[in-house]
């Protein structure tokens, strides 16, 4: 879900919200021994975060998906 700008935070039982901070949400897809990092719009960000790519390749199961906030 994308953040929506509102005048003030709400307080309703059963609902939560989070503040929007500058940064990126990265989706990490791993197939075999290679990981690809994509933005929520599907833009390839693998070369931009080589350390995160290596970490995903070493630690995630052979076929996996995860989301990271940077």
Q: Can you describe what's shown?
A:
The chain starts with 24 loop residues before the first strand and ends with a strand. The protein has one helix at 50-59, and strands at residues 25-31, 34-38, 63-69. The chain is elongated and about 45 Å long. The chain has a domain at 25-69. The chain is built from one helix and three strands. It has 70 residues and is α+β, with helices and mostly antiparallel strands. Helices cover 14% and strands 27% of the residues. Strands 2-1-3 form a three-stranded antiparallel β-sheet, covered by helices on one side.
Q: Whole-Å distance between the termini?
A: 17 Å
E-strand count: 3
Count of individual helical segments: 1
Give the oligomeric state of the chains in this entry, treating copies of one chain as homo and distinct chains as hetero.
single chain
Sum up the overall morphology in one term.
elongated
Strand order of the largest sheet: 2-1-3
Pick out the low-confidence regions: none
């Amino acid at each position: 879900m994308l953040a929506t700008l509102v005048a003030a935070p709400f307080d309703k039982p059963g609902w939560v919200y989070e503040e929007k901070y500058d940064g990126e949400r990265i989706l990490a897809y791993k197939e075999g021994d290679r990981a690809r990092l994509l933005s929520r719009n599907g833009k390839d960000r693998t070369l931009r975060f080589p350390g995160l790519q290596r970490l995903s390749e070493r630690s995630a199961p052979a076929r996996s998906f995860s989301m990271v906030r940077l």
